[in-house]
Amino acid sequence: MKNTTLNRSQHTSGATTQFEFVLLKQITNNFSEDRVIGRGAYGVVYKGVLDSGEKIAVKKLIYMPLDHDSEKQFHNECTNLMRVQHQNIVLLVGYCYETRRQCVEYDGKYVFAEENERALCFEYLEGGSLEKYVSGKIMHHIDNIMTHGEKCYP
User: Fold this and answer.
1) How do beta strands 92-106 and 17-18 pair?
2) CA–CA distance, 123 with 2 (Å, rounded to integer)
3) Where does 5-129 have alpha helices with state H?
């Protein structure tokens, strides 16, 4: 099996790991519901645990029809994230892009269909999503305004 240990120098050197889909299934417990840490318009984010014990966030992209231009979107997101290095941006540590053919029944006949699997893998941050953190801070601030009469602006 491929070595799945990532280190900080890989993250900041621009090196990005290409993960196999079978490995991502393994480290997310087959993309189990109990590993879901977020949902968005383009995919579900799962907590993955590598052989080394290191945690990563795996964003498994949902299937989009070919006319949706999802290929270009995936390419742009992946390559742009590979170049970005900033302390306030979660780092891309890897990706998965695999196409395989699978025999399926369609209209009473067996046909071979292409199945694309795409995922982006990020460093894992403890404490939940940024959305929860930000909305929690805002709600706390609103609560202070309502109960203590704190001003919104100095």
Assistant:
1) parallel
2) 19
3) 8-12, 21-27, 70-83
User: What is the value of pTM for the model shown?
Assistant: 0.71
Note whether 103 and 68 are within 8 A (CB): no
In which residue are the tokens 């302390």 written?
A: 87
Q: E strands, the chain, where?
A: 17-18, 36-39, 43-49, 55-61, 92-106, 109-123
The closest of 34, 33, 24, 31 to 4, measured between CA atoms, is 24
Pairing of strands 109-123, 92-106: antiparallel
Q: Can you read off the two tokens belonging to residue 121?
A: 């893998």
What type of residue sits at position 33? E
pLDDT in tens, 51-108: 999 999 999 998 776 666 777 888 888 888 888 877 777 889 999 999 989 999 999 9
